[in-house]
Design brief:
mainly alpha; homodimer; 9 helices; DNA-binding; 191 residues
DNA sequence: CTATCTGTACCGTTCGTTCGGTATATTGAT
DNA sequence: ATCAATATACCGAACGAACGGTACAGATAG
C-alpha cells in the first residue's frame, strides 16, 4: 500500500481530535498499520502525519473548490445569476466536504491549539488566503471594487467557520445549511 | 489563597492550548502552585480545572453580557437607534473579553476536540443558547418575528466565532474588528 | 537476492495522579 | 492566656500508564 492510502484516515483523525488529541495508538487502529509501518511511510512521525492530513485538506481546496471559481473568473462580465450559480456550486462542494456540518474543520482545529498553530501556520494561512482571493477575484471580474470583494471573501470564510462551530456546539446542523444556502446571494449583494 | 484566585490562569491556558494541549506542568507554572497543591483546590483533577475555566467563561456571559441585553429587553418598543446602541455595547464587551481578537474562544476550542466536547458539551451548548436567546428576545421586543430573531442571534454567534478563527489563521485582526463594527446594524436589519 | 514493508518488543520521557508530610492559621476548652 | 486540636494551604517525590519513537528480525513481493 502506498503512503497516500492512509492519508484520508489521518485527515479524519486530526479533524476530530486535533493535534494533541490524536495518539499514535489511535492512528494505528484507524489505519490498521503498526507503529513501525507508520514510521516507514511517515519518517517525520506525528508531525509529518498531521502535515499530510493538512496537505490533503489544502489539496481538496485546490482541486475541488478553486476550479469552480477560477474557471469562471477568467472570462469577464458575469451576470449576477451566473455568479450565484458558481457560488452555489462552491457551497455544495463545501457541504459535501464537511458532511453537512458533521465534520469539523482541520484548519480551525489546528489554529485554536496554539502549539500546533506554530507548526502549521503557513499552510493554514495559505489555505484561507487562497480561498478568499479566489472569491474576491471572481467578484471583481463582475465589477465589484477590490476592498469590498476581499471583505466578501473573508465573510464567506467567517460564515462557514462560524457555522461549523455553532452547529457542533448545539448539535444541530440547520444553521450550517442555512448559512450555505444564503451565502451565494450574500456574496453577490450590491452587484 | 482561595480556589477562585487561580481560575483566570486556568481560563487563559485552556483557551490557548485546548484541553489536551494543557498539561499539569503548564498549569503549575502559570499558577505558581505545585501539582499536588492543584489537587487540593481541584480534587477532580484536570477535568475539574477545565470545568472551572468553563464556568468562568459562562460567568462572564451571565454577568457582563446578559445584563446589557436583558435590562433593555424588559421594556417594550425600542427605536432602531436604541437597539443599535445596545448591540454596540455588547460588541464592545465582547471585544474586550477577546482582547481585540487576540484571545481565542474556550467554547470553540473545546467543541472542536471531540474528546473534551463529550465532557463539557452541556455547558458549552448552554452558553451559546443563552446568548442567542437573549439577542432574539430583544429583537422580538422591537417587533421582529421569532424565527428571524433567532436566526439573527445565531448569525451573531457565527460571525464572532468565524471572525476569531479567521483572525487567528491570518494573524490579522482587522476582520474581527470589522465584524464587530458591522454586527449591530446587521442584527437590526429589517426593523 | 534485493528492496520494501510490517510485527514485536522495547526505549526514554512525560502524562495525570497520589502519597506522605510540613507550615501556618483558626478554633475551643481549660 | 495557654495549649492542644483541627483545618487550610501547600509541596517534593514518586507512581503506573501512556506517550512518541526506535531497533531489528521476519515476511512479502519483484
Amino acid at each position: 500500500m502506498s503512503k497516500e492510502t492512509y492519508v484520508p484516515a489521518l485527515l479524519k483523525l486530526f479533524r476530530q481530535f486535533g493535534y494533541e488529541g490524536v495518539t499514535l495508538t489511535k492512528i494505528s487502529q484507524e489505519t490498521g498499520l503498526g507503529k513501525a509501518s507508520l514510521y516507514h511511510h511517515f519518517p517525520g512521525g506525528k508531525a509529518e502525519m498531521a502535515e499530510a492530513a493538512l496537505n490533503q485538506a489544502n489539496q481538496w481546496l485546490e482541486s475541488s473548490v478553486l476550479p469552480i471559481l477560477m474557471g469562471a473568473a477568467s472570462q469577464e462580465g458575469h451576470s449576477k445569476a451566473a455568479l450565484i450559480n458558481i457560488f452555489q456550486a462552491m457551497c455544495e462542494e463545501t457541504n459535501r466536504f464537511f458532511d453537512g456540518g458533521h465534520n469539523s474543520c482541520l484548519w480551525a482545529g489546528l489554529v485554536l491549539e496554539q502549539s500546533s498553530d506554530a507548526l502549521f501556520h503557513a499552510q493554514i494561512s495559505e489555505a484561507f488566503s487562497t480561498w478568499i482571493e479566489a472569491i474576491a477575484k471572481i467578484l471583481m471580474s463582475a465589477g465589484m471594487d477590490e476592498p469590498l470583494a476581499r471583505q466578501r471573501g473573508e465573510d464567506a470564510m467567517i460564515s462557514i467557520q462560524g457555522a461549523l462551530i455553532l452547529s457542533h456546539s448545539l448539535h444541530e446542523f440547520e444553521s450550517f445549511q442555512r448559512v450555505l444556502n444564503e451565502l451565494p446571494k450574500r456574496l453577490c449583494e450590491g452587484i
